[in-house]
Design brief:
- The chain is α+β, with helices and mostly antiparallel strands.
- The chain has 2 domains: 411 residues, 2-Layer Sandwich (Creatine Kinase, Chain A, domain 2), CATH 3.30.590; 65 residues, no CATH class.
- 40% of the residues lie in helices and 18% in strands.
- It has 15 helices and 20 strands.
- The strands form 7 sheets. It has a 6-stranded antiparallel beta sheet. The protein has a 4-stranded mixed beta sheet with strand order 3-18-19-20. Strands 2-9 form a two-stranded antiparallel sheet.
- A hairpin with a 2-residue loop joins strand 19 and strand 20.
- Helix 13 packs parallel to helix 14.
- The longest helix is centred in the N-terminal third of the chain and has 23 residues.
- The chain is globular.
- The two termini are 23 Å apart.
């Protein structure tokens, strides 16, 4: 039986304080996260006991330090959200993690809700600053000083699938999907080949094919083996190769189509037939191929464009997805995937209302033409950055959205609702609803557990199956029980 689709994203946001004497990004991030107060709840800790970031999917554990676990630091850097997500400080960035979702449309909704949470936090935090200071938050991937920060995707998979099968089947897809998932970037970094503009913000920072690190020597396929679920049954595939996206359409394609590819890998119909000769070189080359016409060498001596590789994956999806798997969302993704590839084959710039890098490129082209600037002008780079600014009156994408110049999939009402309401069809419903209903009885939370304050100590309820804990399964119990009755009933049911 196929593993149910469960997906989520984690976004690290860039941050700066205008007119600050010194930029202390850790302090700024901590201020922003702590300024968000949607619950008026007592302190609830994040349960780091369930974290294992040093486990490698290839069967070993690397040396290093696990996350901090002291309660004082924990409460300062973590906020567990009633929509089932998590909001916390990660090094020098505020980071938002969506709740678990069962389809790409819901994922877009909860990722966009995260942007609103960041904006509400920013406004609240600014009240504590000097009058001339302003916090600016960017949903992008680089500070243009050689530092890249991530937008990570997570996909539930069967533990039965050999990791080598995932590497073989997924690598060519990830390397070439940037033609519709890239956010666009002025210039180059990390010692990569110079260019005026490229498709992906992250491509220059990938240096190896497979590995565990997310900070240095970044791999195309990340091997972190931290399932946040029953490790005998499930794998959480941690994808770090994607850009942070502003476009709803782009986010939708990114997570939705990747989920489809993983289904095909689990079916055994995608193997090594699209293997590239040098994926690390190709990911940088595709990022610079704005016409999407360069051909890349496969290991079997075929030479295909990025579009042709994507079309081959699409054909397999049409051929092998069963009627039961072709949900309305999946059908819509297949249609949009084909629509984008067809239009990009003719003219990539025709996607100027849909795909982030094209939207941005058209803006910058018009700006350069109007002012006769060069691509190396600092004002051009600032325009690139301003595209990702979350402030609704300043951000270029936000202004395009407001004026109806980009494709939208969601209503604003849906996004606002997702700030305080979890998905109904994953364990996020149980987590978020417990946080709302029993806040004074919860000690700590993780992705796969809740620790309640019991009459004689702590009661830890494990949530090892991400597709359980739904409204359908547990909604009636949550509506009718006290916290003690809930814990006792769950323990009785096993």
């Amino acid at each position: 039986m196929a593993v149910p689709t469960i997906i989520g994203t984690e976004t690290e946001f860039g941050i700066s304080v205008k007119n600050a004497r010194e930029q202390d990004l850790v302090a700024a991030s901590t201020l922003v996260v702590n300024a968000y107060n949607s619950r008026n709840l007592p302190t609830i800790l994040w349960d780091y006991a369930q974290e294992s970031p040093l486990m490698d999917a290839r069967g070993f554990t690397v040396d290093g330090e696990n996350p901090p676990s002291d309660d004082a630091n924990n409460s300062v850097i973590n906020d567990i959200l009633i929509n089932g997500g998590r909001y916390y400080v990660d090094h020098a960035h505020p980071e938002y993690c969506t709740p678990e979702c069962t389809n790409a449309r819901d994922l877009v909704k909860y990722e966009k809700a995260g942007e609103l949470i960041l904006e509400l936090s920013r406004l609240a935090a600014e009240q504590l600053l000097l009058d001339n200071q302003e916090i600016i938050i960017y949903k992008n991937n680089t500070d243009y000083k050689g530092h890249s920060y991530g937008s990570h995707e997570n996909y539930l998979m069967s533990r039965k699938i050999p990791f080598t099968d995932i590497v073989n089947g997924l690598t060519p897809f990830l390397v070439t999907r940037q033609i519709f998932t890239g956010s666009g970037k002025v210039g180059a970094e990390n010692g990569a080949e110079d260019t005026d503009f490229q498709i992906s913000q992250r491509a220059d920072f990938f240096e190896k094919e497979v590995g565990l690190s997310t900070m240095v020597e970044r791999p195309i396929i990340n091997t972190r083996d931290e399932p946040h679920a029953d490790s005998k049954l499930y794998r959480r595939l941690h994808v770090i190769v994607g850009d942070s996206n502003m476009s709803e359409f782009t986010i939708y394609l990114k997570v939705g189509i990747t989920s489809i590819i993983l289904q095909l890998i689990e079916k055994g119909v995608v193997g090594s037939q699209f293997a590239l000769q040098d994926p690390v070189a190709v990911i940088k080359s595709v990022s610079r191929d704005l016409d999407c016409r360069n051909k890349y060498s496969l290991k079997d001596d075929r030479n295909w464009t990025a579009i042709e590789i994507q079309q081959a994956y699409l054909e397999l999806a049409h051929k092998h997805l069963s009627p039961e798997e072709r949900t309305p969302v999946v059908e819509d993704l297949l249609d949009k995937w084909e629509y984008v590839l067809t239009n990009m084959k003719s003219d990539p710039m025709s996607m100027g209302q849909h795909i982030d890098w094209v939207i941005k490129k058209r803006l910058i082209d018009a700006y350069i033409d109007r002012h006769a600037f060069k691509w190396t002008d600092a004002r051009v780079r600032m325009l690139d950055l301003q595209y990702h600014d979350l402030r609704p009156e300043k951000g270029l994408y936000a202004r395009l959205l407001k004026n109806g110049h980009v494709e939208r999939l969601l209503s604003q009402e849906e996004v606002v609702h997702a700030i305080q309401h979890p998905p109904l069809d994953t364990r996020a419903y149980f987590r978020g609803t417990c946080l709302r209903k029993y806040p004074n009885s919860i000690h700590s939370v993780s992705w796969n557990s809740i620790v309640f304050n019991g009459p004689t100590g702590f009661d830890k309820i494990m949530m090892e199956r991400p597709h359980f804990g739904t409204q359908e399964i547990i909604g009636e119990l949550l509506n009718s029980c006290t916290v003690d009755e809930l814990v006792n009933q769950i323990r009785t049911d096993g």
